[in-house]
Amino acid sequence: MASAVTTTSRGQGRGRAGWVWALPPVAVLAVVLLYPLALVVQQSVTPDEGSTSLTPYADVFASESFRSALGTTVWLAVGSTVGCLVLGFALALVIAFVPFPGGKAVAKFIDVFLSFPSFLITLALLFIYGTVGMANGVWTDATGASEGPFHFLTTPWGVLLAEITYFTPFVMRPLLAAFSQLDTAQLEVASSLGARPARIVRKVILPEALPALAAGGSLVLVMCLNEFGIVLFTGAKDVTTLPMLVYGKAILESDYPAACVVAVVNIALSVGLYTLYRTVSRRVGA
Amino acid sequence: MTGAAAGPAASGIRFDRVSVAYGGNTVLDRLDLTVEPGEVMALLGPSGSGKTTALRAVAGFVRPASGRVYLGDRDVTDLPPHRRGIGMVVQQYALFPHMRVRDNVAFGLKARKVYKTETATRVADALELVGMSAYATRYPRELSGGQQQRVAIARALAVRPGVLLLDEPLSALDAQLRSGMLAELARLHRELPDVSILYVTHDQVEALTLADRIAVIDQARLQDCGTPQELYRSPRTEFTASFVGNANLLPVTVGSGTVAFAGRDLELFTTDATAGATATLCVRPHLVGLGDGPNALTGTVTEVQWRGSTHRLYVDIGGHRVKADLRELREPPALGQKVTLHFAPEDAVLLPAVDQSAPEAVTATGGAHG
Predict the structure, then answer these.
(1) A230 vs A242: CA distance, rounded Å
(2) Does domain A55-283 have CATH number 3.30.499.10?
(3) What is the predicted ipTM?
(4) What's the CA gap between A28 and A116, in Å, rounded?
(5) What pTM value is reported for the model?
(6) Reduced DSSP (H G I as helix, E B as strand, rest coil) percent helix, strand, coil of chain B, to 5
(7) B111 shares contact with chain A (CB less than 8 Å)
(8) What was the pLDDT predicted at A1?
(9) Smallest CA–CA distance from B59 into chain A, residue
(10) Domain assignments of chain A as residue spans, ordered by start
(11) Same domain for B200 and B252
């Protein structure tokens, strides 16, 4: 009994000590992240008059520009994610299972690529496909035409290409990690049992890569929803996403309540998708 | 759904001077070996000897630098693995973790587009053969190592291969399970007498227990080939004598009708070597007796090991370490004690001293020793 009492009091002491240690990081988190977030939410329900109201939400939701930006944001994010998943899976397959000279260097480059800023990729694409880029230059030199045929970079397709180019390595990284864990004997046995390569990919590799695909895909989806730099750098005037709308409302129009409403919607979308990802991945045991 | 590949595949394997090299390093050197239809051939050798490479050459996972591989009468050297019609079981089983047991077993049948109804029947048959019918809906992670092994075997047998490749299939199991699975494999082979089995192992007990013939491989070369009894009783090389049964190998000089060892003349039955030549005398430790007898040798005990039912003595005789496995002794000799060992002339084999730098190539076809 005495030992039980001692154990309990020790446990309580440890619990109290734990709280003490947890307080500083929680406090820092609250000041640095949660407080500004709370201010954004507060501003979104505080119209210019100063009273608390949901009018900013009603106004923003009723506006065509918001609905268009929401639609553009979602389709670009979903399109980019699908593109990244398909391209990332194919590239990771080749790097992991098709031996070629420099394969390891390419795999290492993927890690480096992840540290690049998004605008850098967009800038590189501008050099290639921009109005005065290499591709158009080659075309005009070759044909004598006054301008080249490549003008898609300032359209949603250009944004899509830039996002797929930039975010594909974010899918490849977890996939390569998953492939490195895959028992290659499974692939050999599958082959000895009569399965062709396509069937092995479909029936053996893909199912085992699903958790990694889900992890990479949801990360890319959330990042695409919040992407600002790529859309800005492509110079696509007609492509307005939610982050661009926040920028426009806050900086160009000084409409802070509306900007905060759009920001809150953007946050809700991201958090909602993240929650969905966690729920799904828990169910599939990822 | 054609079911075209559902029939039994060609049985028997033939290696025709197969060499495999990785970056200039030869890992299998001119292997000539024939596994007859329905025969169990064990490839026995230490790690890195080339035995798994030989199996992988049959499976199609390594391409020979030279030579041809035949399954039955068919040259499969240039065929991809999925067109060879083999069954394969590997060390860690390699079950597909996301599939249930029945789907694992059905994998090869579906890949070969066997009719659905026939697939179901054959999956049930294969699982029954290995005693795993009750586990059809389980996932591999819900099975023990031995059960996973059975499923892996069922998966390989469901496609009715003419050739079954087993790559160290029991090495991941504990000793007790291994013994049980050996008996299971022997039973399976009795039930499937037409299937040729190539069994890669470094465990001599597995090879001796299961194989019709054993091919001993070392340093990328076939060293010896014969029935377990032949290899055990009259090995051709020192390596075989040492690797199969851990024999005593004593350097001797051949005399007229006898051999000289440590200043003593020993009588043997096999003394066809030239008088005056050096040779190696091979005596199994369990055929060495303690006390006086024919071919008695006296030496000093350097180590005594109690092994439950036996004692192993290490005795220094003329600077050579001789091993003797004796039924458990009531009063084992002490270290440093002088003891006399003996062996019968018919229990010793005389091996020619072979130049190890250029071992003679061994060609092994059905039934022939060496």
Answers:
(1) 13
(2) no
(3) 0.82
(4) 28
(5) 0.79
(6) 30, 35, 40
(7) yes
(8) 45
(9) A192
(10) 1-44, 55-283
(11) no
